Automatic annotation (TrEMBL):
InterPro entries: BTB/POZ_dom, SKP1/BTB/POZ_sf. This is BTB domain-containing protein. The lineage of its organism: Eukaryota, Viridiplantae, Chlorophyta, core chlorophytes, Chlorophyceae. Residues 15-124 form the BTB domain. Pathway: Protein modification; protein ubiquitination. It comes from Tetradesmus obliquus.
């Protein structure tokens, strides 16, 4: 008997509610226990409360109450339910079920499921890569972990991304992230090595360069405005005066127009004028 068969048998024993799934035109049902759902999910607890009065008034005592779960398949719900019921063997998070656990765990606010997911991502961050077609694509898991509010898992993904290639931290890869995650990425870039760009990192047209101020000036060409992250006057390392709203940084002029090191610290963001 496979784990899902064992799980369904457990869920059907003395069940008091029938879950109704409808995804992509496919409908299915699954018996369950309202007490376990209420303890495991604030979203389902609220849904059960809303459906309680109407279901009890229209159903006989021999009929299970029905709770619709639109947009979720039976298979996906069984995947997360493994972590809600005491079954053997104990379920494990894997790269194969990770996305379902992240998406459904977030959708139904199942903190116990998300805790398992966060632990897996943190333990396996070293397996992440930067190939968009890879099942271990770091930015995919960063986006999903960020959407689920898994801050420690996000940091593990971000650390791996910066270690692999800091220049990959461009807006095309970070769009849609909550503000704190790109900020953490920038902090990691800044503390790893000075970074220079010819535009705000929130702009898809900007290019990143890592190295000294002199090398950045030569790379971008004389006369261009470029911006330094993790640089101090003279081109050394240090904190950057960045606006965390648009991730802009200290402006410098390629060719050494401002200071001998090519770096000029400023008190305001060059994009929005906000003091930093």
């Amino acid at each position: 008997m496979d784990s899902f068969s064992t799980l369904q048998q457990t869920m059907g024993t003395k069940a008091d509610i029938d879950l109704v799934f409808d995804k992509d035109g496919t409908q299915d049902t699954l018996m369950s226990h309202s007490s376990i759902l209420q303890l495991s999910s604030q979203v389902l607890a609220h849904a059960l409360e809303l459906h309680s009065a109407s279901s009890s008034s229209s159903s006989s005592s021999s009929t299970l109450r029905q709770l619709p779960l639109p947009g979720t398949s039976k298979a996906d719900f069984l995947t997360v339910a493994q972590f809600l019921y005491p079954i053997a063997p104990l379920p494990k998070v894997s790269w194969d079920n990770l996305e379902v656990l992240l998406v459904e765990g977030r959708k139904w606010d199942m903190q116990v499921v998300l805790a398992h997911v966060a632990e897996f991502l943190q333990a396996n961050a070293s397996s992440l890569d930067l190939s968009p077609t890879s099942p271990h694509y770091a930015f995919k898991w960063l986006q999903l972990a960020d959407a689920a509010g898994l801050s420690d898992a996000c940091k593990a993904c971000a650390d791996r991304i910066v270690a692999l290639d800091r220049s990959s931290c461009v807006s095309s890869n970070t769009q849609g992230l909550s503000p704190q995650t790109p900020t953490y990425l920038l902090d990691k870039c800044a503390t790893s090595a000075p970074l220079y760009t010819n535009g705000c990192l929130g702009s898809s047209s900007s290019t990143a360069f890592y190295g000294t101020a002199a090398a950045a000036s030569a790379y971008f060409g004389a006369g261009q405005d470029i911006y330094g992250i993790g640089v101090a006057a003279g081109g050394g390392g240090g904190t950057y005066p960045a606006c965390l709203g648009c991730y802009s940084c200290a402006p410098i002029r390629a060719g050494g127009r401002y200071t001998p090191g090519g770096v000029r610290l400023v008190r305001t963001c060059h994009e929005c004028g906000r003091e930093v």
